[in-house]
Amino acid sequence: MRLKRKARSSNRPRRYISVQKKFYFSHILAAVWMIVSIVLSIPWVQDLGLLFTLPAALFIVIGISYIPGYMNAFMISSLLFDRQPKVKDQDPSEPITILVACYNEEAGVADTLRYIATQDYQGDIHVIVIDNNSSDRTAAVALESGESLGLSLRVIHESKPGKNHALNSALPHVHTELMITLDADTLLHKSALRYLVARYVSSPSDVCAVAGAVLVRNSRGKFLARIQEWDYFLGIASIKRLQGLFQGTLVAQGAFSLYRTQSVIEVEGWPDAIGEDIVLTWRFLGKGWKVYFEPLAVAFTDVPEGLHHFFRQRSRWARGMIEALKVVKPWQQPSPYTRYLTFCNLFMPYLDVIYTLVWLPGLILVFFGYYWIVGIATLLVLPLTFCVNFILYAYQRSVFRRLDLRIRKNATGFFAYVLLYQIIMSPVSVWGYLQEAFKVNRVWK
């Protein structure tokens, strides 16, 4: 009798919590966290006030502690509520077109096409490779590979440099309802297309794009790549999960995302921006359309291994965010969820500037015996940081298990990511903001 009761109770469906309730509950928990932080920080604020005046002390502490704490508490509580709905069709068969923009990708485009050819997707796959004024044999290698792999592939040429020009030149050649953009150095998991399309066909009619999960391919490379493995695996993926939960993924990244073709046409294609995928996504959201995220649709990309290319890439991302904020203001977003998420981006320049110009000098002062900004109490944040990353790791591990993937052992990269990554990222982001403010010439590569 007890066994029957237990079986019956285990079959009960989980209680459904609406997106709106998750949003409110998460804000309440984040507010409680911030109130506790404010109370505990009163002595710190008073001491800083004696050095810099009370308004300056508040300006510093708000940027270092209150706002980041609120955002992190909101993210963690939201992710604990997250229960992604099951897809209605595990094996969709809608025809799709994949756009691969290439600039001097002779060495890698064949591998990218090979992984497309080995997908377990049931529908027709059409591939358009756009040779964006390459000086090597990119186009020839793509044609040869497509023929040997039996792909439905064509190559078109676009002489005007820029990824947006390359993708827009392919748009008139897309004759399917759905299209996917894929970077030429990005390799797909064998079920990536199936999961990506399945999420779209299972979504409401106002969903116009689904972002895939992009992870690091060259994580056995240099130290910087090993750090970025955790950024993509924990940081970026978790932020996208949060945004997807509230139906407003802020970047359907060009590296691997699905778009409804007509929606791209209605917003006049990819914009002339250094963050063309960011601005495109915000234009979708500004029209009241939704953008989802599918964590099981995994692709692996090469990340910069040298500081020069890393600085250039991440400053470009920061600059792209500013471009998007100019195109669609946060208060113009029709969805309250997207409004909040984009408002968070509005605070990022302030937070990065405070971190770069105040927290980092404060960290240096510690080595000379001055604990004005960074003190012993700062170390208490570390257990919380590791706890947060453990929660994120547990979820990502479950995703990998479903995909029959194994997480590489990279403890050194993990500790460096937790302890050092923000020290690198904030100054790089500030440099990107300055580039946009002074209209420095754009550099894509």
From TrEMBL:
The keyword Lipid biosynthesis does not apply. The chain crosses the membrane at residues 23-45, 57-81, 340-364, 370-393, 414-434. InterPro entries: Nucleotide-diphossugar_trans. Keywords: Glycosyltransferase, Membrane, Transferase, Transmembrane, Transmembrane helix. The keyword Membrane applies. Pfam families: Glyco_tranf_2_3 (PF13641). GO terms for molecular function: glycosyltransferase activity. Belongs to the glycosyltransferase 2 family. This is Glycosyltransferase family 2 protein.
